[in-house]
C-alpha cells in the first residue's frame, strides 16, 4: 500500500492537463461571464448555443444568470421575516423549488450528452446568489462522476458558498493521479487568491477519497472536508468483488447497476412511510425506475463502470495510506443502511484516525445520502459548527438565520418539554403593567436578558421558542464553550449541541458578547453560569453571581437595554437525588468527573468564590410531574448615555 501511494503520481496526467482546458481555466477570473470552466473551445461554443436558446427548457449549469433573473429567483426562493432593524431571523426556500431524485437523473442525462471534453468544473445556476465573501465549496462526485450529486442541496448551498462541481465525462479515463492534480491546482490557485478564506471539499464516496488525498498533500492550506460515506472502505465493500465478475461475465453489469440504483432510491419501506406522512399519493413508478436504470446505464456503461471501480480501488488505497497526514477540519457523514459499503464502521474508524474530526450518523439512510429526502447539508454543517468565512469561526458574522424548517424541527425536539411544562411568559410594559405575553419586549436591539439559570439550564430553549413565536425575535444564548468544542476541550457530540449551534448559541466570552451587542442582537446571559445550572441539593433558585457586574459597562457602551428576568418551575418539577458532592463519594463517578474536567475549557479562572467553582458533572434528578414554567421579564433598563455614571 505504501509503495502504491509513493508511486501513483508518477503516472501520465496528460488527460487532465489539456492546453485548452488549462488556459481557459486560468483565464476565467478575467472574464466574469465564464463560470469557472475548464473546457475545450469547441465545447464552449456548443454550450453558448444552448444558453442563448431561451425556449429550450433544458437545465443549464454553465453560464451565470442575468442579474435580473437572479434577483427574481432569489425573491421567489426566500420568504423571510425581518424586524425594523433589518435583521432577518427566519428564512425559507420556496417549497416549489425543492428538487427530487428525478431531477438528479434529468440533469445527469443533460450533462452527459455529447460529452467528450476532459474533466472540468462547473457552477450550477441556482448557486449564483452567494455573498462576495462566501467561501469556495468544491464538490467531488462519487462513482457516477457527473457532478450533480448535490442537486437537492444547490439552492441553500448557493446562498452561503461559491459552489463548483467537478464533472468527469463518461468516456474520460484520467487517472487518479491526474484528477488529484486537477483538484490540487484549483485549491492552490484559490488559496493564493484568498489566503484567509477556507476551502470546503465536499466528497461523496469516491470523491471523499480525492478530498482526503488532496488534504494529505496540502496540510498548509485551510481545508474543511465534508465526507459522505467515504469509499475508503472499498476493500470491504460488495463492489470489490464486482470487478472480476464484470471482467469475465459482462452480463453482471445490469445486476450491478440495479444494486447502485437501489442504493440511490433508498429503503422502499421508508419511502412508502414518508409518502404517507407527507400525503404523496403517487410514489415512483416502475416506469420511473426503468428510466433511472437507463440513464444510469448511460452514465456507467460497462467499460466506464470497470474503470470507475479500478479508480475506487486506487483512490481508497492511496487515501488510507495517507490518513496520518490529514490535518484538515473534517466532518464525516455516514449512513446506517448503506448497502454498498460498510459506512458506519468506516465512519467510526476514520473518526479515530483523523485528529480534527467529527461524525454524524444517519440511521435510516443509504449510500447516496445527499440525494435523499430530509437531508439538508447546510443544516448539518451549521449544526456541527463548521461554517466559517475566515480562518476562525465568528459566531456573530458567520451565523446563518434559521429557516422555518429548522425552527419547526427545533420546536419538535422540545415539544415534550413544552407540553409537560406549558411555559407562561409574563413581561412588563413601559408603564409598569405586567401582561401575560411578550408584548413588553422591545423589537429592536441590542437587548440583554439577564437571569437565573435553572437546573441543567433547560429553561433556555422554551424561552427561545416563545420569543420567535410571539415576537419574531431570535434570542442568542451565551453558553459554556464546552458545547462548541470537539473532542479535547468539549463534550461528546450529541444532538443537543447541534441544536444549540443552529439556533444561534454563542460560546461565553467578552469578545463574543461585544460582537453580539455591537450587532444589535438580543442576548440571553446567565451570570451564575454552570454553577447555577449544576447546583447542589438545597440550592434551588439560589444566585451565584460575581461581585462585579461584568456585563453592565459593555451594555452601556452600545446603549443596550437590560431586561432582568426570572424563570421558576424547573426546580419544582425535578428533585436532585445525586449531586456533585454525592458523586464525588463514588469512585467510578469521581474518576469520570475528574477526567472530564481535565479536558473541558475552564472559565473564570481569575476570580474566586462559589461562582468560580464550576466542575463539570451531570446531576441526577427524578421528575415530579405535573409542573409548569413561569418566566417573568422586568421593565427594560435603559443604559444609553449612562456610561459616565458607572464607577
Automatic annotation (TrEMBL):
The UniProt record lists the keyword Transferase: yes
Gene3D superfamilies hit by this protein: alpha/beta hydrolase (3.40.50.1820)
Chain ranges of the AB hydrolase-1 domain: 176-373
GO molecular function: diacylglycerol O-acyltransferase activity
SUPFAM superfamilies recorded: alpha/beta-Hydrolases (SSF53474)
Coiled-coil residue windows: none
Compositionally biased region (Low complexity): 68-91
GO annotation, cellular component aspect: membrane
Family matches, as Pfam families: Abhydrolase_1, DAGAT
Spans annotated as Disordered: 60-94
Biological process per Gene Ontology, one example term: triglyceride biosynthetic process
Key words, A-Z: Acyltransferase, Transferase
Similarity-based family: Belongs to the diacylglycerol acyltransferase family.
Name of the protein in question: AB hydrolase-1 domain-containing protein
Native organism: Citrus clementina
Amino acid at each position: 500500500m505504501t509503495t502504491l501511494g509513493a508511486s501513483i503520481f508518477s503516472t501520465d496526467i496528460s488527460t487532465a492537463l489539456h492546453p485548452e482546458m488549462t488556459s481557459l481555466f486560468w483565464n476565467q477570473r478575467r472574464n466574469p461571464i465564464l463560470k469557472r470552466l475548464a473546457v475545450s473551445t469547441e465545447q464552449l461554443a456548443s454550450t453558448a448555443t444552448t444558453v442563448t436558446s431561451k425556449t429550450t427548457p433544458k437545465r443549464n449549469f454553465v453560464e451565470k444568470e442575468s442579474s435580473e433573473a437572479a434577483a427574481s429567483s432569489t425573491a421567489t426562493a426566500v420568504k423571510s421575516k425581518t424586524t425594523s432593524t433589518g435583521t432577518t431571523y427566519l428564512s425559507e426556500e420556496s417549497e416549489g423549488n425543492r428538487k427530487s431524485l428525478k431531477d438528479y437523473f434529468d440533469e445527469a442525462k443533460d450533462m452527459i450528452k455529447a460529452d467528450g471534453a476532459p474533466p472540468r468544473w462547473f457552477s450550477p445556476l441556482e448557486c449564483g446568489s452567494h455573498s462576495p465573501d462566501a467561501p469556495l465549496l468544491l464538490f467531488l462526485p462519487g462513482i457516477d462522476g457527473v457532478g450533480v450529486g448535490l442537486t437537492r442541496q444547490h439552492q441553500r448551498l448557493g446562498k452561503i458558498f461559491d459552489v463548483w462541481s467537478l464533472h468527469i465525462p463518461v468516456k474520460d479515463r484520467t487517472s487518479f493521479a491526474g484528477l488529484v492534480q486537477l483538484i490540487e491546482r484549483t485549491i492552490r490557485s484559490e488559496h493564493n487568491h484568498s489566503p484567509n478564506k477556507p476551502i470546503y471539499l465536499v466528497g461523496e464516496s469516491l470523491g471523499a477519497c480525492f478530498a482526503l488525498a488532496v488534504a494529505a498533500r496540502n496540510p498548509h492550506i485551510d481545508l474543511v472536508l465534508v465526507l459522505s460515506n467515504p469509499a475508503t472502505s472499498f476493500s470491504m465493500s460488495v463492489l470489490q468483488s464486482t470487478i472480476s465478475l464484470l471482467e469475465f461475465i459482462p452480463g453482471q453489469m445490469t445486476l450491478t447497476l440495479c444494486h447502485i440504483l437501489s442504493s440511490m432510491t433508498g429503503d422502499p419501506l421508508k419511502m412508502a412511510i414518508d409518502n404517507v406522512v407527507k400525503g404523496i399519493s403517487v410514489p415512483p413508478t416502475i416506469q420511473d425506475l426503468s428510466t433511472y436504470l437507463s440513464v444510469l446505464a448511460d452514465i456507467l456503461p460497462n467499460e466506464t463502470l470497470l474503470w470507475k471501480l479500478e479508480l475506487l480501488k486506487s483512490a481508497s488505497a492511496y487515501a488510507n495510506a495517507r490518513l496520518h497526514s490529514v490535518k484538515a477540519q473534517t466532518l464525516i457523514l455516514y449512513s446506517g443502511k448503506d448497502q454498498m459499503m460498510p459506512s458506519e464502521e468506516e465512519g467510526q474508524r476514520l473518526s479515530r484516525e483523523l485528529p480534527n474530526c467529527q461524525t454524524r450518523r444517519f440511521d435510516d439512510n443509504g449510500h447516496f445520502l445527499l440525494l435523499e429526502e430530509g437531508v439538508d447539508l447546510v443544516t448539518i454543517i451549521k449544526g456541527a459548527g463548521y461554517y466559517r468565512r475566515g480562518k476562525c469561526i465568528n459566531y456573530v458574522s458567520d451565523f446563518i438565520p434559521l429557516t422555518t424548517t429548522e425552527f419547526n424541527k427545533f420546536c419538535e425536539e422540545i415539544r415534550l418539554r413544552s407540553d409537560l411544562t406549558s411555559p407562561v411568559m409574563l413581561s412588563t410594559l413601559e408603564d409598569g403593567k405586567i401582561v401575560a405575553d411578550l408584548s413588553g419586549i422591545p423589537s429592536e436591539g441590542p437587548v440583554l436578558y439577564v437571569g437565573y439559570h435553572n437546573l441543567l439550564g433547560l429553561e433556555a430553549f422554551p424561552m427561545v421558542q416563545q420569543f420567535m413565536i410571539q415576537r419574531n425575535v431570535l434570542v442568542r444564548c451565551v453558553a459554556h464553550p464546552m458545547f462548541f468544542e470537539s473532542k479535547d476541550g468539549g463534550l461528546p457530540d450529541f444532538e443537543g449541541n447541534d441544536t444549540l449551534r443552529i439556533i444561534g448559541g454563542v460560546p461565553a466570552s467578552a469578545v463574543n458578547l461585544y460582537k453580539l451587542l455591537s450587532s444589535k442582537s438580543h442576548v440571553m446571559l446567565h451570570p451564575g453560569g454552570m454553577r447555577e445550572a449544576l447546583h447542589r441539593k438545597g440550592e434551588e433558585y439560589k444566585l451565584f453571581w460575581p461581585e462585579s457586574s461584568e456585563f453592565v459597562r459593555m451594555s452601556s457602551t452600545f446603549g443596550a437595554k437590560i431586561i432582568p428576568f426570572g424563570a421558576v418551575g424547573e426546580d419544582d418539577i425535578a428533585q436532585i437525588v445525586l449531586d456533585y458532592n454525592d458523586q464525588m463519594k463514588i469512585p467510578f463517578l469521581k474518576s469520570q468527573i475528574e477526567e472530564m474536567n481535565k479536558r473541558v475549557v475552564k472559565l473564570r479562572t481569575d476570580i474566586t468564590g462559589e461562582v468560580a467553582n464550576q466542575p463539570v458533572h451531570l446531576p441526577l434528578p427524578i421528575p415530579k410531574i405535573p409542573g409548569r414554567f413561569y418566566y417573568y421579564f422586568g421593565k427594560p433598563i435603559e443604559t444609553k448615555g449612562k456610561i459616565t455614571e458607572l464607577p
